[in-house]
Design goal:
- By secondary structure, the protein is α/β, with parallel strands linked by helices.
- It has a single domain, classed as Rossmann fold (3-Layer(aba) Sandwich), CATH 3.40.50.
- It is 32% helix and 19% strand.
- It has six helices and seven strands, in the order H-E-E-H-E-E-H-E-H-E-H-E-H.
- It has helices at 12-22, 56-63, 106-121, 141-152, 169-183, 204-211; strands spanning 26-32, 45-50, 82-87, 91-95, 126-134, 157-162, 194-195.
- A seven-stranded mixed β-sheet has the order 1-3-4-2-5-6-7, sandwiched between helices.
- Helix 1 packs across helix 6.
- It binds guanosine-5'-diphosphate.
- Guanosine-5'-diphosphate binds at residues 50, 52-58, 72-74, 76, 98, 162-163, 165-166, 197-199.
């Protein structure tokens, strides 16, 4: 069993660990459109992936308690770069470009795949990828494609459900079980699914706590 599945997210000491880490100042490092621009230091890193408009910027801002760190936007499919944020010189947060937006060209999809694929393959310090899934929509083909990519490069990832405030609790429970069942056979998937709402602050403390140990290794 891996470290974070053993974590008791109701334990105050575990929550405190996450709180203390994510209270550190967080600064924007660089936005990269090409692989040769990515930071080369070996700070442990966590990446965030998800379809355009999934709530990725909102969750990054909620985790670090800054409203303007990652730019939230109403223009899905616009960001084409990987944005790096350094949290207290202890953890790098990598905001991957959103995917799955219908109105992008084939060339843009290829650019996304090329950049993300080469990033994933060359990132020894990457500890986990959070694959964000909108609670209203569940898994889409594009999410499955990204998970297949992560399985292929043996990069551990976990599902984080977003916008939990938008759906009923019983629906959320069923969604969690069905996603767990579906991804359990994926070799790089992590068996714990985080349920969050940036808007209502649901699950943010627990997500901080489950990610914090990754900065220690
Ligand atoms: P990104 O494109 O994945 O970075 O998504 P954003 O963070 O920009 O959010 C996209 C839209 O979803 C915005 O209109 C946000 O206000 C909204 N949103 C983000 N998180 C939540 C949430 O937890 N609950 C609700 N109801 N809306 C959210």
């Amino acid at each position: 069993m891996s470290l974070a599945t053993e974590l008791n997210l109701e334990d105050p000491a575990v929550l405190e660990h996450g709180r203390v880490l994510f209270e550190q100042p967080c600064r924007f490092v660089i936005g990269c459109v090409k692989l040769d621009q990515v930071p080369t230091d070996s700070t442990p890193e966590i990446a965030f992936a998800g379809r355009s408009n999934v709530g990725k910027s909102s969750i990054l801002n909620a985790l670090v308690r800054q409203n303007t760190l990652a730019r939230t936007s109403n223009t899905p499919g616009r960001t084409r770069e990987i944005n790096f944020f350094n949290l207290g010189e202890q953890l790098m947060l990598a905001d991957l470009p959103g995917y799955g937006y219908a109105r992008v060209s084939k060339a843009q999809v290829q650019q996304w795949t090329g950049l993300v694929d080469s990033y994933l393959k060359g990132r020894a310090n990457l500890r986990r990828v959070c694959v964000l899934i909108d609670s209203r929509h569940g898994l889409k083909e594009s999410d499955r494609g990204v998970m297949a990519m992560l399985d292929q490069v043996a990069q551990p990832y976990q599902v984080v459900l977003t916008k939990a405030d938008k759906v009923k609790a019983d629906y959320l429970g069923k969604l969690e079980s069905s996603i767990k069942a579906e991804i359990s056979k994926n070799p790089a998937s992590f068996p714990v699914i985080a349920i969050t709402s940036s808007r209502k602050g649901i699950g943010i403390d627990e997500l901080r706590a489950s990610l914090a140990p990754l900065a220690d290794k």
